[in-house]
Amino acid sequence: MTVAAGPLHNREPWAGSLIGKRTGAVHQSDADAATPAAYDTCRAGAYTSADLAIAYRFANPGLRLRMLKVQLDVFNVSASRT
């Protein structure tokens, strides 16, 4: 199971979010439940990560564009490893 939550901000022209995500432990699809020792070695443990996004919108930036959005995304901000 995966659960995600966090604040979103949108005040033109700026937008941003910080989303925390918790992913529970799972067993790989090719694991054999009939052999418990092997079944446990194919288990991926639970982990938590956080993603950050910051964006800026330019209205009528020229070059026949109506809108231009520049966005920076940083995934797994804490650099946690499973």
Keywords:
82 residues; 1 helix; five-stranded antiparallel beta sheet; 7 strands; two-stranded antiparallel sheet; elongated; mainly beta
User: Roughly what fraction of the amino acids lie in strands?
Assistant: over 45%
Number of spatially distinct domains? 1
Average pLDDT, rounded to a whole number, is 86
Q: Classify the helix fraction into a percent range.
A: under 10%
Helix-strand topology string:
EEEEHEEE
Please give the number of β-strands.
7
The total of helices stands at 1
First-residue to last-residue Cα separation: 16 Å
Largest sheet: 5 strands, antiparallel
Structural class: mainly beta
Shape: elongated
Poorly predicted regions are none
Please state the CA-atom Rg, rounded to the nearest Å: 20 Å
Quaternary state reads single chain
